[in-house]
# Entry
Amino acid sequence: MTDIDTTGVEGPHGGQPVRHAGADLADANAAVVMVHGRGATAHSILGMAGEFGTDGVAYLAPSAARNTWYPYSFMEEPTKNQPHLDSALAFVGSVVDAAADAVGRENVLLLGFSQGACLSSEWLARNAARYGGLVGFSGGLIGPEGTPRDYDGDLDGTPVFLGCSDVDPHIPLERVKETTEVLEGLGAAVDERIYEGMGHGVNEDELAAAKAMVTSLDVE
# Structure
């Protein structure tokens, strides 16, 4: 497998491993950067790769220090979650950059659940360009209500899937709506799906949507 250089990642997540499943990155047609949630592991989210059934996709999962990307709610002031937040964003960025170098930026998809979805959404907004896609399961942009969303760049039609419950105990519905609005404003093509009474999890419809996005990238 192509080595992923994370030597530039400082702070709490510096030196953490990147787990791998699927095709070797050097031989892959596409790559999915999978970002796990709070208290979970890279290994656990890589298990989702088996749902997608793609032979030419490399799945890369960075591992958070102590299984947590940042200590407090994503709705807190970002300063309260430092230095963990900046370290996590740098870590995700290093993995995305390595994947883009191997398969092309337009063939790299970010996928995250919960804390990982928040991190993936925020990273993409801060680094707006044409990517293979974003799948955000139960997450949204980071920061308290009223946070300025002065992002630069152009997502240039990047497909985005955002799925969440209307009663998620961790993710306010308003934040999902805001995330959709912001990413669309940056040029993304957003498919937002809100599920009544689901709670905090991932359902079959969401997995099917993610599979369709991943499969569309696995073309030689």
